[in-house]
Structure formats: C-alpha cells, structure tokens
Amino acid sequence: MSEKYYHSPPLRKLMTSHQVAETGFEFYSDAVLAAAFLTTSIVAAKRMSSSRSRGGAETTVVTAFYSLILMTASLRTIWFVIPGTVWSSTYTPHAVMAFDDGHPQWLMQFLEILLLGAGSLCLFSIFILILVYWADILKKYFYPGAPRSKPMVTFLVLVGLLLAIQVLNATLFLFGEYSTEAMLLVNSVTLSLVSVVCVCEITIFSHRFRTVLKTLGDINQVSTESQVKRIVWITVTGNLFFFIRAFLETSFAILLVVFWHQNGTVAESFSHSIWDAYILLKHWSELAILGLMLYILQNRFTSGVEGAAGEDLNVGDRGYQTVPDMDPNDAELSPNVASPSTLSV
Hints:
Layout: H1 3-6, H2 9-15, H3 24-52, H4 57-81, H5 84-87, H6 106-142, H7 151-174, H8 180-220, H9 225-263, H10 272-306, H11 335-338, H12 340-343
Helix pairs in contact: 3-4, 3-10, 4-6, 4-10, 6-7, 6-8, 7-8, 8-9, 9-10
C-alpha cells in the first residue's frame, strides 16, 4: 500500500477494514433482513397466485408487478441467507481480480456481485414499468392522435439496456480490466443515475397525472380527491426512496473514486461501520418501498374487483362506464386499471 495512503488518516479510517470475519451484529442484522425479505417474497407469491386466477387486462398488469416484487425479494433473501463469509473471507468488500490464484474466492465474490446486481435490476424494473405505462397514458391525453409505442416493448428495451451494462461489466472483470470493487463502482454509478432519472420522471408525470385526474373527474362529475391524495403520497415516498438510493450510491462511488485518485487503486475494503450503515440504509429502504407497493396494489386491486364506484374514475354515481374518447385498445390502460393509484408505486 502506498505511503501516501497513511498520510490521509480520515480517509484511511473511513475506508480501511482489518479484514476480520463477519461480526455478531452483521450476522444478526442479515438474519433479520433475510426474514423480512422472505416474508415479502411469500406475500408477493400469494398475491401473484391469486391475481393470476382472475381474468382481465387489469390482472395481467398487476401480476407483472407482483412477479417483479417476488423476484426482487427472493434474490435479496438468497443473498442475506448465505453468510457473508461464504462469499468472501471478510464481510466487507475488498478488491480481487478474476482468476487470481492468490484469492481462490474470487469466483464467489463475482457471483455475489452478479446476485446483488440482479436484485437491483428487478427492483428498478418495477419503477421502469410504472414509468413507461405512465408515459403511454399521458401521451394519449396530452398528445391525442400521436403514434404510441407498446409500453411493454419500451420496458423490455430499457431493462435490456441495463442488463447489457451488467453483462459488459462482468465481461470486463473476467478479462482482467478491473477488480471486483470496480465492478461495484460501475453498478453504483449506474443505479445512481437511474435513481436521479426516476426522481425527475416521477415528479413530472405525477404533476401531469393530477391534472388529468382532475379534468376527468370534472368531465364525469365524480370526485377524484382520493386518487389525487394517493398519488401525492406515493410520489413523495417514491422520491424519498430514490433520493436515499441516489445518495448512498453516489457516496459509495465518490469514496472509491477519491481513494483511487489518491492511491491509484481501489484495492482496499470499507470499514465495517461504513459498510454496515450502507447495507442497512439501502436494504431497509428497499423493504419499505416493496411493502408500500404490495399495500397499494392489493388496495387498488380489491377495490377494482369489488367495483367500489367511489374509487373508480370510470364508474360514478350515474353509472359512467368509460372515459370519453377511450378506444378499445386502451382496455388495459384505462383509468380503472392503470390509473395513478395502480401504477404509482
């Protein structure tokens, strides 16, 4: 390690790990998170099974969300169930190169990063799916007559792009271009940028959706106050999640970049205290947003199936069945199905 590093006590204290194994706090903390994610995955699986047993376009959209929640929670459960020392000799990450004979656990560390990346990809895919449906619905009302692409195709393209970044990142590691911590750096920068984009898009779309809701409510002579309040509440909580995620990932990336700038390497792991704080904030915020989505989806789906007229935009006291100018191809995107209360998690 370079001598310059030892002349930077604050950074050394922040970044240095004594390469000890998993602490008792980390073990029990991971066990609690594993139980929480397992519970989330069980709930999502039951909801998905129940949703698939119902017919209609609404259930197709809802089932897709439950599937993504299930995959996210399941991948996180697998990571937390497996003890940290199985992945690596230390709980905190440290840099190793591919095919390094001096670090026989390089393959496990590589698989760990892939598992974490897959979980994050599934989590962010939920919000990408929401945003592409939002964009499609809003395009109909703000730009009538304009050609509209299929939301699911747009969703697959965007997720495919993020997946391609993951594959490229893994390929460069396997070809020896950089270490495992550089892989983490690439993932952090990617997720930080995606989080910022999601904050901007959610804020813009939620404002436009409130405008649409109020307009449709006036046209159909029904109250949309509950939907407006719900979308405001979910916008605030969703943006809070992405602000936290962007802050965490950006801080992680900055620490690695500063360390690399001072020492020419990122071959040093984080301290246990810093890494523990990162893990706790990151994954408890994920659990909070997944729980919120499960609550909103169940609440909206139940009210839609039972036909609670006061909660549906297109069924009012006078028996309105459709929103004016609604074409048949918009069945699965009608306000009753893809309204902000359904797709605004």
